[in-house]
Amino acid sequence: MTQTYNFSAGPAMLPKEVLLKIQSELIEYEKSKASVMEISHRGVDFMEAAEKSEKDFRELLDIPDNYKVLFLQGGASAQFSMVPINLLRGGSKANYANTGHWSVKAIAEAKRYCRVNICTDGTDNNFTDIEEFENWNIDEEASYLHYTPNETIAGLEFDYIPEVEMPIAADMSSTILSRPIDVSKYGVIYAGAQKNIGPSGLTIVIVREDLIGDVVKGQPKLFDYSTQANNDSMFNTPATFPWYAAGRVFEWLKEQGGLKTMQKINQTKAETLYKAIDNSDFYSNPVSIKYRSWMNVPFLLADENLNSKFLEQSKDAGLLALKGHRSVGGMRASIYNAMPQEGVDALISFMNDFEKDFG
Ligand SMILES: *Cc1c(COP(=O)(O)O)cnc(C)c1O
Q1: CB count, 10 Å around CB of 47?
Q2: 56, 68, 171, 294: which one is catalytic?
């Protein structure tokens, strides 16, 4: 196989070492004599894998003891409902920051359960900038604040955590594990696995214990965090394979040196790519420099008519899935933990050659 680098936004690239490890144990998992996909989630072999996975995840993010970690299904999109169902706690209002595509989706779902106060809105700047927190319009009586630390589509990422008295719920689908975070600042953190955790089909939720158990009446039992927490995420059959595979990713992250090391690597990757874009008149990125995402880097070509040629030639060069989201256009390079610096360097060198040929 020739060397390829996969810039897909999600499901995204996994570390090669992890794929090889999974391949080597796919048919017979440890002592079970069957595939990890074929064994009971209540059997000792899977239970051990699940527990180890949670332990490593906790260690990586330094999650305090008063937080539960849930391994669920339904994607981040199911959390758009579960957050209001669990965090309204008798209230009728919630604050939502509208910073992009995924905020919009979360807001639409929350409106089914409560009055939504849009406390900041980036619609007018086409989600290329974030308002300073002191200018947000927070409703102090609302039950919680929801925001999206990294907007995957526009490539817009917060460099601060909002300072509020109420619990904060954060959709970290495309930024979790990219660097250390202070979990204690949050009420709920959730993330679909398919960007920076593992294969799709798994959603991880980190939730502060005192926020569990007071839910909007008449909602599905599975959507009650207490159902999941009281049953160690095994009220029904969990997504066993992605849970196990995520565990292999966590082991890999620990081997790399943990999240402080990943932070340095990710920052350098992003900086080199943005620098290449900014140093050229042929490529551009519209996002306010302060809020550029480390994980998702959208860029436009000066001549849109060259987009399909760029995609064709980059694919031939082994650089996959660079097509931008249709709402932004152009290209997008997603450079999560699994993308090595060499992949970013290969992309930059391709971009330079393409500019020489067509710019
Ligand atoms: C991908 C993504 C989602 C959607 O995740 P699903 O798991 O497909 O529901 C939500 N929020 C953000 C920030 C994302 O990047």
Answers
A1: 15
A2: 171
